[in-house]
Design a protein that fits this description.
There is one protein chain. The protein is an alpha/beta fold. The protein is built from 10 helices and 12 strands. The strands form 2 sheets. The chain has a 6-stranded mixed β-sheet with strand order 2-1-3-5-6-4, sandwiched between helices. The chain starts with a strand and ends with a helix. The structure holds NADPH dihydro-nicotinamide-adenine-dinucleotide phosphate.
Length: about 280
């Protein structure tokens, strides 16, 4: 029987998730439909209720609803509880079970696809929004030595550091002090700055010779940060496309009990993205 899934967000029109899940379904022999549903923060809860009433079995949640989705759940995974944000809903008997696959998606992409070792790295996280919340615990589990979180609105970085509760290993600093923080072996851009016309003013002193620079966004939005990192001779620069595919595979696993192969979908999306960027 065909099962109904969706991704909720605003904006959502350009989401790649419907394509990714349709491909995973074909590959694994799962009959499904998966649609993108635009919902404002005011309408989000009622949009999810309408989707469920029409037979919805599961959903992905993206910007700006991850914390609102958490509040809709009757039960959440330990990881989602820790980060206070949900990107995957699963209908279970009489309510939504929520989990968060962003962190594991990032780590699988970096360690298995890119073959990078995160252990022992001094790390800087730029941003403290939903995506940063979703990936920080997974980075700690992956063995980063130290994590400094810097956010444009300093209070949000402080809140995230408090939520993590490892004061010796995870600290917040002010954006104005970036030039005084020394260099890093891993820098993650978890800001939404790349989607805007403003360019972040980052000092090259942040980049050590073995620095891995990761932008969680992908496509044109990742160009400014990754160009900065390459101009500063970082060792390796990665965008968020692989993370997107891997977090989708983790959601698929939770819904259907099988983890799809991701290399084919990733290669197709990478080729499409490269073609779009070079056509500009
Ligand atoms: P949020 O809206 O929750 O947070 C946005 C963050 O960006 C905040 O920390 C905000 O700071 C900061 N920010 C926004 N504009 C600027 C700017 N001009 N200069 C500096 N900081 C800025 O968004 P998310 O955390 O959900 O998403 C962040 C990014 O991660 C997006 O690009 C998104 O596409 C990407 N992402 C990728 C995923 C993937 O699978 N690859 C999954 C999830 C997200 P402040 O608090 O001051 O507003």
């Amino acid at each position: 029987m065909r099962q109904h899934f969706a991704v909720f967000g605003q904006p959502i029109a350009h989401s790649l998730s419907p394509y990714i899940h349709a491909e995973f379904g074909k590959q694994c022999g799962v009959e499904l439909d998966y649609v993108a549903i635009e919902a404002s923060p005011e309408d989000f809860a009622s949009a999810v209720a309408t989707f469920r009433a029409a037979g919805g079995r599961g959903a992905n949640i993206t910007l700006p609803h991850k914390q609102a989705a958490y509040a809709l759940c009757k039960e959440v995974s330990e990881y989602a509880f820790h980060v206070g944000a949900v990107n995957t809903l699963m209908w279970q008997d009489d309510g939504w079970m929520g989990c968060n696959t962003d962190g594991v998606g990032l780590i699988v992409d970096l360690t298995e696809r890119e073959r990078l070792d995160l252990r022992g790295r001094r790390c800087l996280m730029l941003g403290a929004g939903g995506a940063a919340r979703g990936v920080v615990p997974a980075m700690l589990e992956a063995g980063v030595a130290e994590l400094i979180i810097v956010n444009r609105t300093a209070a949000r970085a402080d809140e995230l550091v408090d939520a993590v509760g490892e004061p010796d290993r995870v600290k917040s600093r002010y954006w104005e002090d970036l030039a005084a923080l020394g260099d890093f072996e891993l820098i993650i851009n978890a800001t939404a700055a790349g989607h805007q016309t403003t360019v972040m003013d980052l000092p090259f002193s942040l980049l050590s010779p073995r620095c891995l620079a990761v932008d969680l966004s992908y496509g044109k939005a990742a160009i400014p940060f990754l160009s900065w990192a390459k101009a500063g001779n970082c060792d390796h620069a990665v965008d968020g496309l692989g993370m997107l595919v891997e977090q989708a595979a983790e959601s698929f696993l939770r819904w259907h009990g099988v983890r799809p192969q991701t290399d084919g979908v990733y290669a197709t999306l990478r080729a499409k993205q490269d073609a779009l960027i070079s056509a500009d």
